[in-house]
Amino acid sequence: MNRKILLAGLLVIAPLLVFLGIGLSKNPMQIDSPLIGKPAPEFDLEDLDGQPWNLERLQGRPAVINFWATWCQPCIWEHPILVDASRRYRDQVQFVGVILHDEPDRIRAMVAQRGVWGPSLIDPGSTAAIAYGVYGAPETYFLDKDGIIVHKQVGPVTPELLDELLAPLL
Amino acid sequence: MMPSAKKLQNMRRLPGLVVARLLSIALLSMGLSLMGAGLTTAQSQPPPGSGDAFVLGLPEGTPLSGRLLDERTEEVSRDIRCPVCQGLAVADSFSDTAVAMKAEVKQMLAEGYSDEQVFAYFEASYGEFIRLNPTAEGFNMVVWIAPVIVLLIGFSIVALRLRSASKAARADDADTSEPLREQVEEDDLADYLDRVRKDLKPTKLEPGT
Amino acid sequence: MISYLGLGLVLTALLVCAVGAPVGFVAGKTRSASGLTWTRRLAFTFALLMLLANLVMEWALVTRDFSVSYVAQVGSKATPLHITIVSLWSSLEGSILFWGLILGLYIAAFAYFERRGHEDYMAYALGAMFAVSVFFSFLIAGPANPFTATPPPIPTDGPGPNPLLQNHVLMIIHPPTLYFGYVGMTVPFGMAVAALLRGQLGATWLKPLRTWLLIPCAFLSVGIMLGGWWSYEVLGWGGYWAWDPVENASFLPWLTGIAALHSAIVQQRRGTLKAWTVILVMVTFLLTILGTFLTRSGVVNSVHSFTQTPIGPMFLIFLGICLVATVILLSLRVDKLAPEPGKESLFAREGAFLFNNLLLIALMFTVLIGTLFPVAAEAVRGVKVSVGEPYFNRMAVPIFMALILLMGIGPAMPWGRADGKAMRRALLLPLPAAAAGVLVALAFGARSAPVLLTAALAGYTLWVTFDQGSRPARQRAKRGDSMSAAVSTTVRKAPRVYGAYITHFGVVMTAVAIAISASYQDTYEATLKMDERPTMEAGNYTLTLDKVWVDNQAHLTAQKALLKVEQSGKSRGTLEPALNQYFTQREPLSTPAVRTALTHDLYLTVMNVGRDGSVGLRAIVTPAVVWIWIGVFIMTAGTFLCLVPPKQGAPRPVTGRTAEEAAS
Lengths: 170, 209, 664
What we know:
Chain B contains seven helices and no strands. By secondary structure, chain B is mainly alpha-helical. The radius of gyration of chain C is 27 Å and the shape is globular. Chains in contact: A-B, A-C, B-C.
């Protein structure tokens, strides 16, 4: 029995298997945002009609900021959910859409066809997307009354998730 | 690299070992110094203490322009991960996001922000994942130091091995006055001992085959 | 029907290797001749069953039998026949079935070609290979069964294979080549297990061990290179190696495999380093399993990752079993592999081999820790970090350079004991060649330190390679043979030695080409528009936009641009880069158009197409790219030359430096 090899081997194997096991249990796509608990980054964007829009418009209301595009299939799935939620939380929560790499015309067509759930802000140069650390679409940020980011959702939202996350913010 | 008198003497006895040792030291130091250069670049500028995304503070570098700015932009974007791509750097991708990020890098460098300030800016919104070059602090030190440690441990094992082999060889020298030239048949070690036995008998050697 | 037939075949294959493993081990233990016969018969049966199962799947694919779930997943009536055939390995389940076929072929080939003279080891070796096969057969028969019946209603058409994998011929040959490298490492692993169980590793077993290690190493070299080439020709970012986790995963076993080949040479010469060779061989196999786990589990972010599947945890369990079994086996048996008596001594040449192993292992460890560190950091700190190209370039390139220097130093050193004067002379003599390398690089306008250093190392190593390689032939010629006769005689007498030198030459060529192409890439960007500004300059090229159009295809919309290419006023034809929006992918993929010349590549990509028809074009001029591919081909040719058996001749003289002595 060569103890040296046994010891060295186990010293290498144990952490390797533990780390890989932990790694396997995590979602490689889920990257925790460092912005949680921090004030939401300010932006100065325009909506489809050219009206300026920034976070001052929130006026102490909680907000849902959703980054989306028409080329993104899950965004199309979650569209009706957001339309419905924006009606249910009409005066309590501000829903804001920021467009990620898309043509305003396509956005207009989509909104006309499937309904409006908030302003659709054009983000030239992706400045807002970069400031929020967006990895793809759809990604949704939840802001409390003080404009602090409390949650980031990667991938489409569900009505249950929206209710659960918004309840404590009201 | 002039060997001392004692070393010279050793060299006459076991020149291969000494030369190998010298070479190995040269190889190792070459590897380590190049790696070290990498490490110091990675370490050179600690991130601003605040860590706040929106207060970058005052520019810590010098404003750049022209060709130098383009080159530096390219270099810095090599170390930033393109968030919407799979494993590519911002410098290599032309997805809209990467192009926009590169533009921001260029602007910040033009304003005189340091490389580390640029990285910290993107890190504040994207997390550490955005750095393709891990910071050399805390647990991340492992990824920088561990290869060097392995190289050093391996080096000492090889060195010890050669040393003990040299001792064994020296003991051999005491026995045989004439250095033994060894000849191993290409693919058959079993044949080898027979051959050595035969070779040790004085035989007439024919040149070539 | 086909589903049941396929499942029946893979279940029988599982049964065969589940029986073969214990039969092999018992036959090894009891040294039973009939047991060995039966083990070999089972090996051939296993290969036959895997072959039939693969043929059945091919039949289902070609006849578009959508009742088989794998066909429904990757087949489509619109897919051309040759793509349909190769879609066997385009998706997870099929690729594991194909893996099973290669495993079967390797085991059967091993059992056949090594049928004589290895009775001591054979049964143990086959038993160990069967044990590995049990896992893969279990995957094929169970969790990753491609033969599952499609739940009704059975579709009349399918989506076709991943579009990204069907747009280039390299994607057809790259995966099988890599698999032949990966899977082939099972054979030397089985042989190492046999050596440990038998408690000896003699010359008779070492020789086939080297052969069966060389073959997968050669396949890995080509497979890795083809992957880089594919990435260069298809992914459109202008590079060929991004230190992606999957690229790294294929690189790791290659490094340890090479290390094992070199330590086996020392073992053959000196009868020492036996245990070390065995450990390296086993680590090589374990790294192929680790690499497959990383690729298939989605545990690391990668271009190539298959989506998360239930086989991830199974691979981890298998990896764990292999690791623990290997360590226990080694710790119990490795001390039996004592060096042959009286041959412990190590000299300069052996020292060079030891440093070669040290550097290869350090390089492997660096790449390994860089690849796995994000997983460890997430487990320890809960934070996702990246370890990317800048890290690997900083850490791995210096080790590479040291390796190239060692490729010059090692062969220059004599075997056995030699006097210091001769040795110093041998090491100093190539220095002018190093200086010449630097001068040549300077003459070509190179100024960057890494390129000049590479040139110096390459000059040194090339001198030694040619000097040592040509010495026996020159000696022969001096004695009156014609030069061509002298070369052919020496090559036939010692193909392994020449194979090694050719391989080294290929490595140096690849390294120089990589250094040049990485240091002197020129990028030009411009927005072209048909009527207003149709022309851009890129180095001495003039590119003129001739046509822009949209090509709607079944699974993608391609925006294409046709460009006329002129070089210093001479027409060089046209290039047609495209921006492809695959319907299943988020970001558009830019498919480059490449003009390859011996000195440089012109690499055109469309960055974007405006609605007004303007084209954002990127032109990259990279020198020496083609020499990377050529270098790897030379390397591989050299590796295969090593496999040619030497011509048996009269005994060589005992004194004087012969080809055998001077090299290997």
